[in-house]
Design a protein that fits this description.
alpha/beta, CBS-domain, Histidine-containing Protein, Chain: A, three-stranded mixed beta sheet, 6 strands
């Protein structure tokens, strides 16, 4: 899994090198498959994808393949208007919202799947949590830099680890 080393010889026996130069399915496939059930939440799927550095997950029902979920599927699901949004949202606000979610997905610790994003007349409101306090300011600044964002109202909190 993951990325190949910075340098690989074509005949290297290292698994990541073999995968990088593979010519058959057996050489390039992931040998240990991570899968999910239909009832798995998007948050759990996003965590699995991040943890295992994968972009697609098979979806099973009673050990039978019923589909494949990708990162793009998660982004599309997150872009759906938030529950409880009042009144129509303009196309501009919908586009800004999609860009905000896409941007948050690229920032480590920003926890896009734990953040609710609402946009009204170019004002972005972020609620929910982030995994890493160090992600708060950079993610807020990145959102503010998105075209047509007029202001960012950030109400996110840092998740607290519980040990017990």
């Amino acid at each position: 899994m993951g990325n190949p080393p910075d340098t690989c010889d074509v005949d290297s026996p290292e698994p990541e090198c073999v995968k990088a130069f593979g010519h058959t399915v057996g050489e390039v496939m992931t040998p240990v498959v991570v899968s999910v059930e239909e009832t798995t939440t998007l948050s759990e799927i996003a965590n699995l994808m991040d943890e295992h550095r994968i972009k697609h997950l098979p979806v099973l029902r009673d050990d039978n393949l019923v589909g494949i979920v990708s990162r793009a599927d998660i982004v599309r699901a997150l872009i759906v208007r938030p529950v409880g949004s009042h009144g129509p949202m303009t196309n501009d606000d919908d586009i800004i919202r999609a860009r905000v979610i896409e941007k948050l997905l690229t920032i480590k610790g920003a926890s896009a799947w734990l953040t609710d994003v609402a946009v009204s007349e170019g004002v972005v409101t972020l609620t929910g949590t982030v995994q890493d306090e160090d992600a708060l300011l950079p993610s807020r600044e990145a959102v503010a830099a998105i075209p047509f964002v007029k202001a960012v109202d950030d109400h996110r909190a840092v998740t607290q680890a519980f040990w017990g």
